[in-house]
Design goal:
Helices cover 4% and strands 40% of the residues. By secondary structure, the chain is mainly beta.
């Protein structure tokens, strides 16, 4: 993994080197986003949840470093501040009061798992890997577009290969009538956000499970009790999907 790509923003623990200090930001500039952290082998360190991408200040090597709101680094910082996994940073620039310098902050340990060679921590926004540091105030693609309300921010352990990281799953499913069939579809996305149907994924709904076919689809029976349920998808060698909510009526 390169310092340019996998970055982050806050910290605590780990030799007491980094200390998170939340910093206020205008409410309008702080989107509520979904975040999930998945470690090596698909272990979920932080289940999917909604969190604010607030601005923060971090201390790295004795320096106070400002992190802009609405960045994947700010998301990781807020997650940690609310009980999420600890992580550690290196600074490949010279961070300070300017949020622009946070672009060179690099996450090398998260949830106790430390980068190893080309394998290590990566982030995705909406299924595509970032091409900038996670604290870069120009956004994950360097085009000035920061996180938007409802964005899905995934931090995951990347097993690097010639084709990039392992694919990350996405599951979709419609609302259903109780006791009736429900069809879920699973796609896997590469670093560039290109998706394809995934066969052999396990789809779960209310204690029921089914396996996807070559077209990425699996059919389950909806629960007999009305309510809101979560549909999830996993597959060995790929990163689990963000669960999606469905209404059974």
């Amino acid at each position: 993994m390169t310092a340019r790509k996998v970055c982050a923003g806050t910290i605590a623990a780990l030799a007491g080197v980094l200390v998170l200090v939340p910093a206020p930001a205008p409410a309008a500039s702080v989107p509520a986003v979904q975040v999930m952290v998945v470690g090596r082998g698909g272990a979920i360190f932080a289940p999917a949840r909604t969190i604010a991408a607030s601005a923060a200040t971090v201390s790295v090597s004795g320096r106070s470093c400002s992190v802009a709101a609405a960045t994947p680094l700010a998301v990781l910082a807020d997650l940690r501040a609310t009980g999420g996994p600890a992580f550690a940073l290196r600074d490949y620039g010279h961070c300070g009061a300017s949020t622009a310098s946070a672009a060179e902050l690099f996450v090398y340990t998260l949830g106790g798992e430390r980068n190893r060679g080309q394998n290590g921590w990566e982030y995705k926004v909406g299924g595509a890997a970032g091409s900038t540091g996670a604290g870069d105030p120009t956004g994950s693609k360097g085009n000035g577009r920061l996180l938007y309300p409802g964005a899905r921010v995934l931090w995951f352990w990347c097993e690097a290969s010639a084709g990039g990281c392992e694919r990350t799953l996405e599951v979709s499913a419609p609302n259903a009538r109780r006791g009736r069939p429900l069809s879920a579809t699973v796609y896997g996305y590469d670093n560039e956000g290109r998706g394809r149907p995934v066969a052999g994924a396990t789809v779960s709904l209310g204690g029921r499970r089914a396996t996807t076919a070559a077209n990425g689809r699996a059919t389950l029976l909806a629960p007999s009790t009305p309510g809101r349920y979560r549909v999830s998808a996993t597959r060995a060698g790929m990163v689990p999907a963000f669960p999606v909510a469905v209404t059974v009526g």
